[in-house]
Inverse folding.
């Protein structure tokens, strides 16, 4: 997500506040009225965009460790179905070779 809307609206709100403050001190009633009427909506939108951006960053940070654990599955989805199946079968072979063979398997029986 781009941070441009947050920066743009926050800049507009700060600029509007500065214009409103200047026009009040310089006795420009019309400018003060217009900038004073536009300031609350701009401030509200800027605050809500800021909160939304912070929440998205927190959610992305909370999701990042789980995304790293499942990176093999995500890369398999990007590769396509044929390569993903080949990758899954290779992973299954690795898991099978890592498991100890049971005592009942024919290859482990010893003739007496």
């Amino acid at each position: 997500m781009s941070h441009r809307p947050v920066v743009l609206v926050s800049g507009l709100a700060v600029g509007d506040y500065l214009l409103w403050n200047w026009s009040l001190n310089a006795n420009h009633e019309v400018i003060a009225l217009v900038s004073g009427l536009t300031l609350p909506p701009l401030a509200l939108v800027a605050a809500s965009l800021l909160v939304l951006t912070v929440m998205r960053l927190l959610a992305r940070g909370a999701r990042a460790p789980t995304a790293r654990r499942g990176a093999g599955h995500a890369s398999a989805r990007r590769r396509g179905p044929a390569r993903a199946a080949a990758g899954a079968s290779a992973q299954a072979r690795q898991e099978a070779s890592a498991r100890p063979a049971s005592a009942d398997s024919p290859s482990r029986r010893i003739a007496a």
Q: What stands out?
A: The mean pLDDT is 79. Residues 76 and 84 are 5 Å apart (CA to CA). The radius of gyration is 31 Å.
